[in-house]
Amino acid sequence: MSIPALPRLTSALADEHRNRLTDLAQEVDFPSGTRLFNEGGHADRFWVLRSGTVTLDMHIPGRRPAVIETLGSDELVGWSWLFRPYVWQLGAEVMTPVHAFEFDAPAVRALMESDPAFSAAVSGWVGRVLAHRLHAARTRLLDLYAPYGSGHGL
């Protein structure tokens, strides 16, 4: 079972919705080793990478966090900001210096509440990212911890 392509911002949203979203963005930079968020923390922002890489990880009791996915240019970092109670479901760490758009989640949610078409577009994009991340997490955890791997090719 292959992992579907991750929906990138430039292809996931129509120009109008992408422009409305990026109008809310602030450009930020992070050095390697920066922890963007930890699993269980308050999700009040999210990022779209312009350059650099970020790993997503999952806490495994008694072990080092398992890296689920590595994200790069034009990819969404963080989806938990969209769903109550706004708590990070994974952790994220900057692996190579990052330049990104940073979004204030309450401001984006307010715009979504005022514009149903924008809300549907952003929710659909984030939902597709979420589905991709859940599939990637499952596959990665099976590869790491199942007796015979994930069964690719079965």
From TrEMBL:
Source superkingdom: Bacteria
Pfam assignment, any one: cNMP_binding
Domain (Cyclic nucleotide-binding) ranges: 9-78
InterPro entries named in the record: cNMP-bd_dom, cNMP-bd_dom_sf, RmlC-like_jellyroll
Name of protein: Crp/Fnr family transcriptional regulator
Organism: Streptomyces noboritoensis
